[in-house]
Write a structure and sequence with these properties.
The protein is of the alpha/beta class. It has one domain: Spore Coat Polysaccharide Biosynthesis Protein SpsA, Chain A. The protein contains 12 helices and 14 strands. A 7-stranded mixed beta sheet has the order 4-3-5-10-7-13-12. A 3-stranded mixed beta sheet has the order 2-1-11, with no helix packed on it. The longest helix is centred in the first third of the chain and has 21 residues. The chain is globular, with a radius of gyration of 20 Å. The structure holds 2-acetamido-2-deoxy-beta-D-glucopyranose (2 copies). The site of one 2-acetamido-2-deoxy-beta-D-glucopyranose has 4 residues, from loops. It is a single-pass type II membrane protein; Single-pass membrane protein.
Length: 378
């Protein structure tokens, strides 16, 4: 027990040191309030080869909700009483022009050094290191996660309270990916997911990386009338693999959403009832809320100049895509990229040049049916 504790302690200290070394940035907010214009979306080929006309217009004051920019002159503001979203924006400023951090984050019950890690998972875990030399690759255990989050979110105690209150491991695992990416950025990928292609090659050459802050894939694009029987959304973005820069507004919003919803349910005593409810995970922390938050963001006039667009962006813009599509600072990869080999919904096979990761849906080690509604033919 003692040695186990000591090992965890050492791991935490190591990770924290790593951050201090690699992230010795001051807390001077570098938030840039950007209006990302999207014009007409055009077709796949158009957006991939000839990126959308996206103008980035820094607008001094910023809006009230994302007002981190306002504190430039006053770096020592007391944020304790600020609304949650403002606190998060202050703590984790988004710098669009920064590089994608070279981190790979995964979580699992055991460290890769443990004999209990799981033989089936080893090749998947190893594939990330092999494909990403020079990246820092961390498999964070549940115990280490607690310490790490306490360090990263010390000044936003609501988030920690919500994390601890979540009643199921799967909810915590979902929440953790958003929390680590908001705070540190990089790639998050589920432990049962193989890297097929280095993230260096995920985006087409033509896409300027200093104008992209979030890379996501499609989990489901069920083009059938009865889609609602199988999926929670007509287009469902996946959250088993995500790449982002720290502070991305989508991550900020999903963290704020889950924190506020959790605390609300905690207060009303409904959180315990959650244990017995099925399907709730998808809406609460899973792909449904993730998808909703992304659509809200790309339709948000605070970030996007809607005047030049043709109305709201909906699932129609992403159905049947064969190449990446860029909307402002978000790149949506086609279904083949993160869900190859599923044999449906237009997904191509693992050897397709657009296949980037292989997610093991059939793993028996996590309640997959809690996470995704399964399509009929599988
Ligand atoms: C969280 O997102 C859902 C959409 O999935 C929305 O209905 C809900 O109101 C949001 N909650 C908060 C507190 O923002
Ligand atoms: C567009 O989306 C926004 C945000 O989701 C929503 O408030 C608005 O009502 C939508 N407008 C239309 C025309 O559907």
């Amino acid at each position: 027990m003692l040695t186990c504790r000591r090992a965890i302690g050492a791991a935490v200290v190591f990770i924290i040191m790593l951050f201090l070394v690699t992230h010795s940035h001051s807390h001077e907010p570098t938030i840039k309030h950007l209006i990302l214009k999207h014009g007409s979306l055009g077709n796949d080929a158009n957006t991939a080869d000839k990126p959308l006309k996206v103008e980035l217009t820094p607008t001094g004051g910023g809006s009230a909700r994302m007002g981190g920019g306002k504190s430039v002159q006053k770096p020592l503001v007391d944020m304790k009483r600020a609304p949650l979203r403002e606190k998060l924006a202050y703590q984790f400023p988004y710098d669009l022009e920064s590089k994608f951090p070279a981190y790979i984050w995964q979580t699992w019950k055991h460290t890769p050094a443990s004999k209990d890690f799981g033989e089936l998972l080893r090749p998947a875990e190893a594939s990330w290191s092999e494909k990403h030399p020079g990246f820092i690759h961390e498999v964070i255990t549940d115990q280490v996660a607690v310490h790490l989050l306490r360090h990263l979110y010390a000044s936003v105690p609501e988030v920690l309270q919500a994390y601890h209150a979540l009643p199921l491991p799967v909810l915590k695992a979902d929440f953790f990916r958003y929390l680590i990416l908001l705070a540190r950025g990089g790639i998050y990928s589920d432990i049962d997911t193989h890297a097929l292609k280095s993230a260096i090659d995920w985006l087409p050459e033509s896409v300027p990386k200093d104008k992209i802050g979030l890379v996501i894939g499609i989990e489901a694009d069920p083009d059938r009338d009865d889609w609602a029987q199988w999926y929670s959304r007509r287009i469902q973005f996946c959250q088993w693999t995500i790449q982002s820069k720290p502070g991305h507004p989508v991550l900020l919003e999903v963290v704020a959403n889950i924190t506020l919803e959790t605390l609300k349910q905690l207060e009303s005593g409904k959180l315990d009832a959650f244990r017995t409810k099925t399907g709730g995970v998808i809406e609460f922390t899973g792909p449904a809320v993730w998808t909703d938050v992304i659509f809200d963001y790309i339709n948000d006039p605070r970030y996007f100049d809607m005047a030049t667009g043709k109305g709201n962006i909906t699932w129609r813009e992403f159905t049947g895509m064969n190449s990446p599509k860029r909307i402002g600072d978000v790149v949506v990869l086609p279904i083949t990229s993160f869900s190859p080999g599923v044999g449906q919904m237009g997904a191509k096979d693992y050897n397709d040049p657009m296949a980037f990761v292989k997610h093991e849906f059939e793993g028996t080690w996590k309640p997959e049916n809690e996470r995704h509604i399964k399509p009929k033919k599988r």
